[in-house]
């Protein structure tokens, strides 16, 4: 095992490898595609275990209340009901049944209080899921309602406190400053300081201050969440649609007080994740239920239940920017409130990791960032494709455009002037390397024909255009381990805990291993995550897999290759001999294995909590730029994206075909957040549209006719094969580009998402001082 | 990866390991015991897959015939029948559907001919196994009967030839001399030559010549054979009760023309194996069926069907020995005929590997051994606990006793005089090391109080006693690979393809890994064989696992330990730091793995075919000595073993508790072969007792009241922790000791197994020149 942080372009040049054996850079269909279309791909939803019970969850109907009592007798008496479980039962086997990646604040079932509508209160177990569901109606819960708080800014100065006590997870290093703090809704207040912001504002030619808001939305993976727990004598197996099997193992082991090797966590193919299936979700409940009844238990959510399980943070972002009359940004103050809902989940880390980029991809001498993770009485928010960056970009790119317009500068020129360049320092002190910001901006402008005449449409259907650019630091510091095993016929198996949830990771892993070993990716088998089988990986999140697991796979393959070469020489064969030549010679028959192990962690630092400063805050920056042309109906506010261009810097594209679909997929998903999706809560915290008949995600008719995408000609010097991640980059600039295009088309500026026709209509009416229909 | 053949006693001394952390030498209950008694251990018989079809096999009712035609129309038409499969179907997907470890002579289903009663001819597939069984009766097969041969000596000079053409497997190195030979029933004729046997006989004071025979018996694992094949798009998984998953993978891959990594073979816990489940049995049929119908297929044998699937070789052993009047053996000529039945299976290797020990554990200057693997029209014979050694020992120890009696020497003294001693050469040229022959003989004599007065019973119930000693070379050369993985909490998983079939290998593996790593065996998880998960191992056979897999596990654990130490130093911790200290420090959280890999193959040679000579024929010799006291009813011939003593040399006992049960288990199993079991064929090759109502294995009332067992105080210098295997050693001396005791009690000598009361009675009657009842 070894790790190597710095690989030069030459080192990745693969001496002696012919064009035929190069795998990286091929456009290769997903290796699992056939199994998916023939219905043979393994999804946990299809798993049936003997004696398996189905769990259905009774959820809180109120946002904040003391639990006075739960009467389960009628439900227990219902024919077909195997058991009814409350926290009282759970506490018999798990004394501290609270879990979570940043805070141990999520009870397996509500204990004493409920904190949001939809919080799990009790579970019915039955052989028939319909019986379990019916019996839920027979459980009587006595709630003593409490005042609730829903707005993130309001919750920041609390009248209502969601949790009596903060419970930071011991292993979350960034939360030390919370020690001793109990009565607050602020789970994390992270800051970055550079220069003297007050002075910058005082000396500025112009100061702009705006507030931007984003709404709470849901991940909507097409495969809803599911965990099946299978108990053994002194062990447990979790079959779960999880993006982070290694984390689930560790967290379940912690809850049970067991060693890791008594907890087995395995995943199948995932039908989408987008962050919803990260860290620990249903697994703790499934494990507790299975251990209580000593039978396999299946906890499967409906699509609707996911709205109450994990969401994307709503945010409020106050941004104040000092600018010279020439358009140079000289200072920026950012305050961001992240609405985490009632459970921290990974929100504090989102608050930090995205918070430190709040000033955008711009070189600014004076910076102040305050980023607050705030508890409210809403359903939990956590990681969502982009990990908070789409919210940040929405704000800083909206303002960039507003400033450019105010200064009568071309918005592309304004950005180009301020962009961070190679070798310059980010506000955290980190020197920028291999972030192709200027290239991506240039390429998007070129694709949009930015400097050419633009058709502005008709008085009824007005046209406008906009661009946006954002960047994201790769999550740090995280670890990946991979193992490569060659059989005596030369065939290869790769062991990796990266979860293929549609992003094509199996294929990328096979390509990277095959590239090192000189064998076609199609012949390589990639074993799916199973903590009894595949080694540790932090998680499949944040576009980290190509970079981190890519390195681990590369190192494992290189280790295998070195072991093969050593054995070849030992048995008197040339160093270039294949496993199919070496192993039979060594062992006298088709026998044995060549095993290679790769462990990777990049050498960089988390930012210091108090200043946000660090010399080396991330191993790489991912860049995405977006350009849109839209058409707005001036009578109705209806808007249509007619051209949708996205350019990303992902370094080398391991598999250009899959990168292409990642660009489109990410951009379209963000189109949903920008234009359509919104979890609508009433004043009591009741979600009014928790179903797809009322909650609209992009359908085929919402997709722009013209979708262009481009992989910037870039190279990540320290990446495996020059690569870095790409799963999120095309989400970054979408929303602000559309808001910019709306202003470009009809002269109104929206600062809250989503950018719905009624908002456009209202803004246009307000600009014309017209009364709105409902105000007449 | 590295291999180390020579470990000194000191090197295994584990500097710095305290008594508390030493694992080797503990008497530890099997780790899986609880899961077995609670019914939770995984047996393949319990596996239910969605859409799984049940296969039932139509078997040949005749011993040798041309197949004129098969009419499956009525069976196909039966309601509930999914398909009826014959070789015609198989040939569509597998052009050469013949398999086997030594010869590719076993068709998946009979092609053109049948060669023994019970040979699979056709298969019915149905959702309901009873429907499949019923439908078998509707298949009409037209047989054109041929003359058959059943006796191994008769088949050696053939009038009837079983196979038209010999088909040695390309990878079986010992069969090169068969090239070009076709029309013979001799699959292998292996020889050893040393000195001048003719001269020895000419110059001898005494020459003894006898012929000994053993019968065909069955392994009778309490879990009958089962294989379930699960087809995927371009891959297949075999869930199978196999002792050799790595071999099955390679052989299925060869049959299908696929790479190894498209074939996954996994086993559960086995309910006994004893050699019956070795190499490839039902797997090829299950795979072909599943690929033909594209559904999972379960092939599960009844207990009765196993009689027609694999058995223990019947043998005829002609032995001629030259002796001085002082009792020194000066020459020995052995001719052994192994009745392999109609399929070679691993018979040729049994013929060779046991054949070269046919002269026994004695130092003899002039030796000639001829050992013949012979085809007959009986059900196949293969590996059976002891791998042919019990048959050899039966003969050479019977004759040893007969010679001692003729010379009026004490049989212990006769053996002691001739035994091979440390540093002396075996007839193959191999120098004896660490074979505690004299020690085991001394210990068995001591336990039997050999020199004390012995109660000879009454005229009706006469008492006698006997001893026997045998040895076995460990199968050579073979490979084992193991992987050890430490998690960041220090918990440990070991990956090994050794199959735990009741012999306690999981526990031994955990103890050996734990010993190196200094952690209790009970905390270590041993992953069961799965070729997608666990690395290569030749097979679980021939008592090789403790030695070979023991070394691989030791090397893997040492590799992990070295990697851990290196990482500890890298992160500034002492070299003695634990994984739970080092990994969190390295990775900043509970993350990562320490992986160690161990590959082992001992450095020794297969004997040269033409002379049998080799300087280094085996990495170790396993020794077993047996002593019995019996009581014979002189009126009926009924005999009862009243004292049963067994001493083995297994070097260090890794787990004395389990070694103890292995000694008893092996000895009692051989008691069945010696006294009770016999597959009785009629003149047409029909088995008359293929059921446990008629085929008797030892029951509780057959077990001697006094069973003593002893682990000799020995040490295997090149073994892992000083250990070697023990699963077979106590089978060696049982049968001859009983025959010796019979002569000691009632003065008659039996030279054929089993030693049934009627045989004793007949021999006594013959000795008294009395007519037998059926002769009256």
TrEMBL record, chains A, B:
SMART domains listed in its UniProt record: Ald_Xan_dh_C (SM01008)
Entry superkingdom: Bacteria
UniProt feature, compositional bias: Basic and acidic residues: 7-27
GO MF assignments: iron ion binding; oxidoreductase activity
Disordered: region residues: 1-27
InterPro entries reported in the protein's UniProt record: Ald_Oxase/Xan_DH_a/b (IPR000674), Ald_Oxase/Xan_DH_a/b_sf (IPR036856), Ald_Oxase/xanthine_DH-like (IPR016208), AldOxase/xan_DH_MoCoBD1 (IPR008274), AldOxase/xan_DH_MoCoBD2 (IPR046867), AldOxase/xan_DH_Mopterin-bd_sf (IPR037165)
Pfam families: Ald_Xan_dh_C, MoCoBD_1, MoCoBD_2
Domain Aldehyde oxidase/xanthine dehydrogenase a/b hammerhead: 38-147
Name of the protein described by the UniProt record: CO/xanthine dehydrogenase Mo-binding subunit
Taxonomic classification: Bacteria, Pseudomonadati, Pseudomonadota, Betaproteobacteria, Burkholderiales
């Amino acid at each position: 095992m070894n790790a190597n942080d710095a690989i030069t372009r030459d080192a990745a040049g693969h001496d002696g490898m012919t064009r035929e054996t190069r795998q990286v850079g091929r456009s290769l269909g997903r290796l699992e595609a056939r199994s998916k279309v023939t219905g043979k791909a393994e999804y946990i939803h299809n798993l049936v275990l003997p004696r398996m019970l189905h769990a259905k969850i009774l959820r809180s109907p109120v946002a904040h209340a003391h639990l006075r009592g739960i009467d389960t007798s009628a439900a227990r008496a219902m024919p077909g009901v195997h058991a009814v479980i409350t926290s009282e039962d759970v506490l018999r086997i798990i004394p501290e049944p609270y879990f979570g990646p940043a805070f141990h604040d999520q009870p397996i079932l509500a204990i004493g209080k409920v904190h949001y509508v939809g919080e799990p209160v009790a579970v019915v177990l039955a052989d028939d899921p319909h019986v379990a569901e019916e019996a839920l109606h027979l459980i009587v819960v006595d709630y003593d309602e409490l005042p609730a708080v829903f707005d993130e800014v309001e919750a920041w100065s609390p009248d209502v406190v969601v949790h009596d006590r903060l419970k930071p997870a011991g292993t979350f290093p960034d939360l030390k400053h919370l020690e001793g703090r109990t009565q607050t809704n602020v789970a994390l207040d992270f800051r970055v300081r550079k220069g003297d912001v007050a002075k910058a504002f005082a000396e500025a030619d112009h100061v702009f201050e705006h507030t931007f808001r984003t709404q709470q939305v849901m991940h909507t993976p097409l495969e809803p969440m599911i965990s099946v727990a299978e108990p053994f004598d002194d062990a447990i197996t979790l079959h779960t649609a999880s993006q982070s099997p290694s984390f689930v193992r560790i967290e379940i082991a912690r809850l049970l007080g067991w060693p890791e090797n008594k907890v087995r966590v395995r995943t199948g193919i995932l039908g989408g994740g987008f962050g919803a299936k990260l860290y620990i979700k249903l697994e703790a409940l499934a494990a507790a239920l299975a251990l209580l009844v000593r039978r396999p238990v299946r906890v499967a959510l409906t699509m609707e239940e996911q709205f109450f399980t994990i969401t994307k943070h709503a945010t409020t972002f106050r941004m104040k920017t000092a600018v010279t009359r020439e358009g140079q940004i000289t200072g920026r103050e950012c305050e961001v409130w992240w609405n985490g809902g009632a459970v921290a989940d990974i929100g504090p880390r989102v608050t930090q990791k995205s918070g430190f980029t709040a000033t955008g991809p711009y070189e600014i001498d004076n910076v102040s960032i305050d980023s607050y993770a705030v508890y409210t009485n809403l359903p939990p928010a956590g990681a969502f494709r982009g990990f908070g960056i789409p919210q940040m970009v929405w704000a800083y790119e909206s303002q960039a455009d507003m400033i450019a317009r105010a200064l009568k500068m071309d918005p592309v020129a304004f950005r180009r002037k301020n962009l961070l360049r190679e070798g310059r320092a980010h506000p955290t002190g980190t020197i920028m390397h291999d972030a192709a910001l200027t290239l991506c901006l240039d390429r998007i402008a070129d694709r949009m024909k930015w400097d050419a005449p633009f058709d502005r449409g008709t008085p009824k259907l007005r046209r406008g255009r906009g661009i946006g650019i954002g960047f994201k630091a790769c999550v740090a510091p995280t670890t990946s381990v991979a193992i490569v095993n060659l059989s005596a016929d030369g065939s290869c198996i790769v062991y990796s805990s990266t979860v293929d949830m549609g992003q094509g990771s199996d294929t990328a892993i096979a390509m990277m291993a095959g590239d090192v070993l000189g064998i076609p990716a199609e012949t390589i088998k990639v074993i799916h995550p199973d903590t009894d089988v595949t080694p540790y990986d932090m998680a499949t999140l944040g576009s980290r897999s190509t970079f981190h697991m890519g390195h681990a796979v590369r190192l494992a393959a290189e280790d295998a290759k070195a072991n093969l070469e050593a054995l070849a020489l030992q048995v008197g064969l040339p160093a270039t001999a294949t496993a199919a030549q070496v192993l039979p010679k060594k062992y006298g028959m088709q026998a044995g294995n060549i095993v290679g192990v790769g462990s990777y962690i990049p050498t960089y630092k988390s930012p210091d909590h108090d200043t946000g400063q660090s010399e080396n805050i991330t191993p790489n920056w991912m860049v995405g730029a977006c350009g849109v042309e839209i058409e707005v109906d001036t009578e109705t506010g209806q808007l249509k994206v007619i051209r949708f261009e996205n350019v990303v810097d992902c370094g080398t594209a391991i598999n250009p075909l899959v990168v292409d679909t990642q660009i489109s997929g990410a951009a379209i998903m963000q189109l949903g957040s920008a234009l359509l999706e919104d979890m609508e809560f009433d004043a009591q915290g009741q979600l009014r549209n928790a179903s797809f008949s009322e909650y609209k995600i992009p359908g085929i008719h919402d997709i722009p006719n013209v979708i262009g995408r481009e992989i910037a000609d870039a190279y990540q010097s320290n990446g495996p094969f020059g690569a870095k991640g790409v799963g999120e980059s095309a989400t970054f600039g979408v929303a602000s580009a559309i808001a910019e295009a709306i202003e470009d088309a009809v002269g109104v500026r929206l600062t809250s998402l989503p950018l719905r026709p009624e908002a456009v209509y209202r803004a246009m009416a307000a600009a014309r001082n017209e009364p709105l229909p409902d105000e007449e």
